[in-house]
# Entry
Amino acid sequence: MIYLRAYCDFLLYKIMMTRRIMQKKWRLGLSIALWLVSVHLICAHNEKSPTALSIKEGSDDHSKGEETLLEDEDSEDLEVFRPTDKWQTLKPGQAVPAGSHVRLNLQTGQREVKMGEEEGLKYGRDGNRLGMLNLHSPSFTAEELKESLKKLKEGMDDPVDSKQDENAVRAQFRPIEELKKDMEALDMLVETDVQVMRRLLNQFNNTNSTTEEKITALLDLEYLVHQVDNAQNLVSMGGMQLVINVLNSTDIRLQESAAFVLGSAVSSNPSVQVEAIEGGALQKLLTLLATQRPITVKKKVLFAVASLLRHFPFAQSHFLKLGGVQVLSELFQTPGTEPLRVRIITVLYDMIIEKELISQVGMDLIPDSSHQERLRQYAEVSLLPVLVEQGWCSLVPELLASPEHDCREKALRTLLAMMAQCQTQYKQNPALTASLSELQKQYQELVLTEQEVGEQDGYFAEILALVDSMVVKM
Ligand SMILES: *[C@@H]1O[C@H](CO)[C@@H](O)[C@H](O)[C@H]1NC(C)=O
Ligand SMILES: *[C@@H]1O[C@H](CO)[C@@H](O)[C@H](O)[C@H]1NC(C)=O
Ligand SMILES: *[C@@H]1O[C@H](CO)[C@@H](O)[C@H](O)[C@H]1NC(C)=O
# Structure
């Protein structure tokens, strides 16, 4: 039963995973629907295992009826007695399935059990059949037990032909092994992720496909490559290179979708990050950022750049060599790209902090060789001097004018992260000094309202601490 339940969970999981991809596949639709119904039925049956009745041992006074204890437990916790068409003695602690006949053997003083006439058909001999699940009388009461004892005393136990019985069971319920085979056959009709990806890549790579079809294929791929294995399969299938090549296609919608797939595939996936860098992705992404594109495309491209650089010092030094900081500086200052500004400084801030954290970790850990290697790689990423050179000491303060708390918070954190390199410039920036004292006033008031509702360390208090820290350090 545990096995069946796990199998059901597995099947339902597979349904969840494949459902989205299958939506448009009408040919499989019918078999999927049937398969879904059968899985749901089997799984639903399995969950409703009959409530077991355990008969408490140690009651001497049989004439007063049984002292029973009804327990609504999971039947897996109990040793469940499997009645047959013959009377069998019940051992202490054994639970009796609902619908069984129970009688007292007056000679031995022990309880004996056999199948109930009606329910009998549902119990197989080997207990290895689905039919053993009794769905019709999930529980029975002490009253019913007494009633069936009374019937037995009245001699109502007609013997049932056991051979006939078993055949009936066979006819009604198929063994689990057989059902499993059927499910496996159905399983083969459902494509695996690898098969789905192969089909999508073919659709995408086919010169006869329309742009719409190609975009659909890319968006379906994007959904799949969130899984680490699928992203790695995308690489081994040659799909990564196809996606990278499409970054400089002439259709902006294809560019956008390709950047989206790329960003998702490399997120937290170091081996795929390496492949993307070696496939020349970074150069193409920077070209998209440096040339005129709609903001929607740039958003996805920035996402891909950020995912590619995260925790990957090799890509970060590559980014510096390709003039990535300059590309971001120009983008930041291009009118109309305001919605992208906070994303841009987030990319830069994350790189600064990553390097800082890795050197701090080095101070309290016993350095091992891989840590030394990481330190060496991050040492090659010399971002802060480039930021100063590209004018970021005066670009970041511009973001403090934003009405968004989130944007101000990011700006303040970045300003603090660049303090050592930018301090002189900050001090000579009257606009920055003015914004900081304005923000200090605003957040002091906001903190009061936060405290009125009982919040001591709220979001505004956090921002105020950043502002105060800036003021002190200047
Ligand atoms: C594209 O369509 C043409 C004509 O319909 C067909 O001959 C060709 O095999 C197709 N190409 C691919 C790659 O499917
Ligand atoms: C894409 O199509 C070309 C021929 O049109 C083929 O050589 C190449 O292997 C295909 N790539 C993938 C990843 O399917
Ligand atoms: C994209 O760039 C590659 C090389 O960087 C080039 O071979 C290819 O022709 C370009 N594709 C388009 C559609 O411009």
About this structure: The chain has 24 helices and seven strands. Residues 206-208 surround 2-acetamido-2-deoxy-beta-D-glucopyranose (ligand 1) (CB under 6 Å).
